[in-house]
Each structure stands twice: as structure tokens, then as C-alpha cells.
């Protein structure tokens, strides 16, 4: 069998799972390799992306924001305009199509901010497959509107109170469910993490972002962007964007991790910048962990970036220097959120605001012909309560006009 799928990225990746999951993973790898090479699978995938998600998503030039910074042009790839409001649906459609092809009768998923849960519940309704979503109890509270959405779409939401009651605990529960029910259940993972073949498969489904953006840049500007910037939680929207430009050495690839209250405080979610090598959720990768190897509770104002690991391919891109990874703290992300709202009339997700903040930092230092392409991974409606709460606790940020 020629799978053409890589199971490792340098020393990262692999399949560190219980013996019982080796066969389901092998079945999935074989089924996905076949589907990937099947023009009918690809045709149906792209037809749904077009007719249901509303692709392709446009590029938007941030004229007023760029002018206010006085440097490079900031250009957004508008994944916030997708049906369900973020990039995640690209991946859930791909995995649901694969689940149907494999004859699975039940979808399960983990979710942090709730966006992946909503995207999975959405395709479950679209394809008529029952769906159960595991979500940390703390996230159930701070992302209540998304819980209501999932339930409205017909999914069952399980609140997980174990551990820190956030994304990693939800993922543990989902894996436990899958071990028990793998015969009829397909586990839809929401990012480029987890055991092989998930990182490769999710990257492939999200690569539509980078492939479109590359072509759109050539059409609109007659050239490639100078930098492609995306936020990194697990790393799926970033891998999707990077995939379009990996073979273009002139394009700098920039991943942005969540610095929370600052790297030095220890309260952050920056796995590459602040973590060490370990194994989590079936893959060898960079992790936030104690000296004893216990996973550390992560923190970010943005629930979708609040994950202690990162996709293995990012670790390799970091080590080889093909991509660089910076850190944006809560206050910088909130300031970027405000600037995009006021200058461009776009309310970004808090996750995406980290990528916008990085571009805002870089733009003034660069000449005006420089193009900074930023992946606007999602819209911010889900975050309004978090932002109001943050501002209430940081009145000085409002006084200073932020
Ligand atoms: C989930 C989410 C992210 C983080 O996930 P990645 O896999 O790192 O892309 C970023 N932005 C939005 C809007 C999200 O919903």
C-alpha cells in the first residue's frame, strides 16, 4: 500500500496509543490514503466547501489599519466568513466524509472554545450522523453560547470535570470513548494534534486555506506575500495557511502562540516557546509540563489557544527554521482586537487577534510594499463576554483608549 502519508516529522509525531487503538488508526490511515487519491472524494469535499461553507473566502486589505501603523500592508484571509464562523469546518467536513465512507454510525469530538464542537455538530446534522461532544466544565461555562448551538444542532454535550476541566481533559475523555467504541465510532479531532494519521489528515483538509490564499495573492497583487502569519493553538489554521507557501522560500512563515499573562509568569499556552519534548494525546511533541512530566494547566484569555501541546509538524518547522514562532500576550491580543474592530469593521476571534497583533507589531518596521498575510481564523461573536470580563478587570486598558 502506498499511503504517501508521513507518520513522523523528524523526531515528532508517531502513534503513542493503547494497543487497542492501533487497528482503528491503521484502518483510518488506509481509508484516508485511498480517499485522498480518489477524485470523487476530493470533488465532493470541494463541492461542500463551496456550496455549504461559502468558499472561497476572500482576501481583505486592511487599508485604514495599515495606514495608521505606517508600514507594511496587512491583508486578511477571511476564514471568519465561513459557515459556523471559523476555519474548523473545513476539517470536520473532510473527516465526516471519511467517517461515512468507512461506514461509521457515530461521531465524537472534543472541544475547547466550542468552535470545533459546533463545527462537528454542524456536519453531523448535515450528514445525519449522531454526535457527542466532550467539553471541559470550565469551557462549558465560559463558552455557553456554543454549548447552546451544539445542542440546537442535535448534539449531546458532555461536561468533563476531571483535571483542569479544559481542552486536554475533554480530549482524554474523547479518547477513552473511542477506545471503548471504535467499531462504530469515528473520533473527529479538531486540530493537527493526536496520533498519526490525524496531523497529516487535518493539515490536508485545512490546506485549502493556503492554496486559495496563494492563488488570490498572485491574482490581487501579482506576487506572493512576504510573510504568512497565523495563531497556533494546536496549529491547524496555521498549518493550513503554511501548506500553501512551504515551497516558496521567499515567504516567511510565522506562527503566533498565546503568551497569556507573559511567558515569565508561567501562565500561558506557548508550547513551542515555553515547553519541552514529551508525549501527549498519542504524539511526541513540545508540551507544557513539569520536571516530573505532568501536564501544566495552561492559561490564555482565548479558550481556543488554551492547549498544552502543539501539532508535531510545527515542531519540525521550528527546528528546521522554515517557520518562526512568536508569542503574543493577552493584553496585546485584546488591543489588536479593538484595533481591527475600529479600523476595519471586523470583529475577530480572540485566537485570531493574536495573529493580528503580531502583524501590528511588525508592520511599522517594514516598507509599505511589504505584504503581511494574516489568517483571520474566526469571528469574535463568541468572545464578547470574555472581552467584557477582561476589560472589567483591566480598567486602565480602557482609560488609555484601547
Ligand atoms: C480553534 C481555533 C483556533 C486554534 O486552533 P488551531 O488548530 O491552532 O487553528 C484558532 N482560531 C479559531 C477562530 C479557533 O476557533
Plain-language structure description:
The chain has 402 residues and is of the alpha/beta class. It is built from 16 helices and 14 strands. The protein has a six-stranded mixed sheet with strand order 3-4-14-9-10-13, sandwiched between helices. The protein has a four-stranded parallel sheet with strand order 7-6-5-8, with helices on both faces. The chain has a two-stranded antiparallel sheet with strand order 1-2. The longest helix is centred in the middle third of the chain and has 24 residues, at 198-221. The structure holds pyridoxal-5'-phosphate. Residues 86, 88, 113, 115, 191, 231-237, 304-305, 349, 351-352, 377-378 line the site of pyridoxal-5'-phosphate.
Topology:
Layout: E1 8-9, E2 12-13, H1 22-36, H2 39-53, E3 59-61, H3 63-69, E4 73-78, H4 88-101, E5 106-111, H5 115-127, E6 131-136, H6 137-142, H7 144-152, E7 156-160, H8 167-181, E8 185-188, H9 198-221, E9 227-231, H10 236-243, E10 252-260, H11 271-274, E11 276-280, E12 283-287, H12 312-320, E13 323-329, H13 330-344, H14 350-362, E14 371-376, H15 384-393, H16 395-399
Parallel strand pairs: 4-14, 5-6, 5-8, 6-7, 9-10, 9-14, 10-13
Antiparallel strand pairs: 1-2, 3-4, 11-12
Helix pairs in contact: 2-4, 4-5, 4-9, 5-7, 9-10, 13-14
The structure holds pyridoxal-5'-phosphate.
Amino acid at each position: 500500500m502506498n499511503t504517501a502519508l508521513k507518520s513522523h516529522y523528524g523526531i515528532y509525531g508517531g502513534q503513542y496509543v493503547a494497543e487497542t487503538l492501533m487497528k482503528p488508526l491503521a484502518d483510518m490511515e488506509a481509508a484516508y490514503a485511498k480517499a485522498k487519491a480518489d477524485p470523487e472524494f476530493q470533488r465532493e469535499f470541494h463541492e461542500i466547501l463551496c456550496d455549504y461553507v461559502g468558499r472561497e473566502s476572500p482576501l481583505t486589505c486592511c487599508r485604514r489599519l495599515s495606514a495608521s501603523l505606517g508600514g507594511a500592508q496587512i491583508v486578511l484571509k477571511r476564514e471568519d466568513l465561513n459557515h459556523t464562523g471559523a476555519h474548523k469546518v473545513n476539517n470536520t467536513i473532510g473527516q465526516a466524509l471519511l467517517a461515512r465512507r468507512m461506514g461509521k454510525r457515530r461521531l465524537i469530538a472534543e472541544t475547547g472554545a466550542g468552535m470545533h464542537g459546533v463545527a462537528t455538530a454542524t456536519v453531523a446534522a448535515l450528514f445525519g450522523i449522531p454526535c457527542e461532544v466532550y467539553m471541559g466544565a470550565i469551557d462549558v461555562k465560559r463558552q455557553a453560547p456554543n454549548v447552546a448551538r451544539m445542542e440546537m444542532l442535535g448534539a449531546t454535550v458532555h461536561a468533563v470535570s476531571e483535571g483542569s476541566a479544559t481542552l486536554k481533559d475533554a480530549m482524554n475523555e474523547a479518547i477513552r470513548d473511542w477506545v471503548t467504541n471504535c467499531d462504530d465510532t469515528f473520533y473527529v479531532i479538531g486540530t493537527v494534534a493526536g496520533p498519526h494519521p490525524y496531523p497529516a489528515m487535518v493539515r490536508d483538509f485545512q490546506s485549502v486555506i493556503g492554496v486559495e490564499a496563494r492563488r488570490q495573492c498572485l491574482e490581487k497583487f501579482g506576487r506572493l506575500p512576504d510573510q504568512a502569519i497565523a495563531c497556533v493553538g494546536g496549529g491547524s489554521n496555521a498549518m493550513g495557511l503554511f501548506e500553501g507557501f512551504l515551497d516558496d522560500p521567499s515567504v516567511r512563515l510565522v506562527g503566533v502562540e498565546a503568551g497569556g499573562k507573559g511567558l515569565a509568569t508561567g501562565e500561558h499556552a506557548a508550547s513551542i516557546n515555553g515547553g519541552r519534548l514529551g508525549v501527549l494525546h498519542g504524539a511526541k511533541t513540545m508540551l507544557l509540563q513539569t520536571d516530573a512530566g505532568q501536564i501544566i494547566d495552561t492559561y490564555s484569555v482565548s479558550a481556543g489557544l488554551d492547549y498544552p501541546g502543539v501539532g508535531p509538524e510545527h515542531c519540525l518547522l521550528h527546528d528546521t527554521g522554515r517557520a518562526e514562532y512568536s508569542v503574543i500576550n493577552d493584553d496585546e491580543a485584546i488591543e489588536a482586537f479593538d484595533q481591527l474592530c475600529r479600523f476595519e469593521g471586523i470583529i475577530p476571534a480572540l485566537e485570531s487577534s493574536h495573529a493580528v497583533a503580531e502583524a501590528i507589531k511588525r508592520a511599522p518596521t517594514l516598507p509599505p510594499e511589504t505584504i503581511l498575510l494574516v489568517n483571520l481564523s474566526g469571528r469574535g461573536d463568541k468572545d464578547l463576554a470574555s472581552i467584557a470580563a477582561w476589560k472589567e478587570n483591566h480598567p486602565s486598558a480602557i482609560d488609555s483608549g484601547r
